[in-house]
Amino acid sequence: MRVEILYPELCNLFGDTGNVKYLKLCLPDAEFIYTSLCDTPAFVSGDADMVYMGACTESGQEKIIKQLTPYKAKIEEQINKNTIFLFTGNSMEVLFKYIETDEGEKISGLGIFDFYAKRQMMKRINCVSLCRFQEMDIVGFKTQFTMTYGDNSDCFFASVEHGIGINNDSKLEGIRKNNFFGTNLVGPLLVMNPYFTEYIMTLLGVEKPQVAYRKEALTAYNKRLNEMRTKNMKDH
Length: 236
Description:
Number of strands: 14
Structural class: alpha/beta
Strand content: 25-35%
Number of helices: 6
Shape: globular
Order of helices and strands: EHEEHHEEEEEEEEEEEHHH
CATH class: Alpha Beta
Largest sheet: 6 strands, mixed
CATH superfamily: Class I glutamine amidotransferase (GATase) domain
Radius of gyration: 17 Å
Strand order of the largest sheet: 2-1-3-4-14-13
CATH topology: Rossmann fold
């Protein structure tokens, strides 16, 4: 089993490197490939079972777009082959049609997904999120300068119980296509959501998956979930 970590020197904001550290504990026999900005990604030759990329700065996004553009067809091929992709924070935006700046400039993305992101650099969006993915609750945080626009009603990652979706007018969070998962949730996502992490492990072929420090992880998860639900009821 091979897990590729894209551009860790850039994609390391909001504690999301914790996703990688936790995966290494949960998958002790897996090989982890760290692909830097100047390397050819392992997924290009089909040598990755999972590809992870975390949040980065806005200038980092533009560098990543430049590096990944030659591999657009390979990314689409791997998504269609059900390779697992997990892109957290603003990383999924590099696969959009474009990112619009405050000045109205449109920075072309890879165009794999029919969405665009709009930056508001003087207005950071922060919120606590409680979402529903399949039969499980997903907890997390959002901290971002962008909102996403487009119709994700047939390709959303999770429905929102508390917080916002891809923008203020949406209650549908993120993007999912086959085993591609793109979400603005940070935190880090996998540490905070042990059931979802076990779901990813199942997709990777792990029989009877159990996350590392499962008892402690579930205790923290349930405590956070109860606190969010209690706060949500008080707010309403």
